[in-house]
Specification:
Helices cover 72% and strands 0% of the residues. With 211 residues, the protein is an all-alpha fold.
């Protein structure tokens, strides 16, 4: 379905732009508890994605997502690259060769991607102060609304609200995963940068659909 493909490519473009612009914010968040490379890594990854956008129109939905995922995994490096890359790759695998996936197909694909991200992160859970703290509530918010008479814009709007609330909660958490976990109690008081990446992604998707 040309409509879905165009929408997806526009969303990817919007996400890339917003995350490239967020480099300084992400670096500042990553400095106290991480190694201050989240912003530059994410920028590098999404700059690489912007370069492949002209190719995406020739692909099916599942392949578009996998291509973006592999691009991120190869260019960002580290945990951020692995987790973000996995998210896109696994979503793409779940969508497969469906040309017109419905809302339930998309939510199921995101749920499957979340499960793999959690497993690859060493059984990461909500409360570990990672991107899962904003991604899981966002997907659950979508799952609760999909299949009702509510349009996709409102469903993604609910995901943005849930992701923001989850990201906000990471400020008071003690990190249990990743480099920030080495700081123990000192990791409190700082938002997890990965959780903010997820918020920005959903915000960008919402803006793109609004346009």
């Amino acid at each position: 379905m040309a409509g879905q493909k165009d929408t997806l490519i526009n969303i990817i473009e919007s996400i890339s732009k917003k995350l490239i612009e967020a480099e300084k914010t992400l670096t500042d968040l990553d400095s106290p508890a991480g190694d201050a490379d989240c912003g530059s890594g994410v920028r590098r990854g999404f700059e690489a994605v912007t370069k492949i956008i002209p190719e995406l129109g020739q692909m099916e939905l599942g392949d578009i997502l996998k291509k973006v995922g592999f691009t991120l995994a190869y260019t960002i490096g580290g945990t951020s690259g692995a987790m973000l890359g996995t998210g896109f790759i696994e979503t793409g695998k779940s969508i497969g060769d469906k040309k017109e996936p419905d809302g339930k197909d998309w939510v199921t694909a995101l749920e499957n991607a979340l499960a793999v991200i959690k497993r690859r992160g060493g059984n990461t859970q909500i409360g570990d102060k990672t991107l899962v703290d904003s991604l899981e509530p966002a997907i659950m918010a979508m799952k609760n609304l999909v299949g009702s008479q509510i349009n996709m814009f409102s469903i993604i709007e609910a995901a943005v609200t849930a992701a923001k609330a989850g990201s906000e909660q990471t400020i008071e958490m003690v990190a249990r995963k990743g480099r920030a976990s080495y700081l123990g109690e000192r990791s409190k008081g700082h938002r997890d940068p990965g959780s903010l990446v997820i918020v920005i992604m959903f915000e960008a998707a919402l803006e793109s659909i609004k346009r």
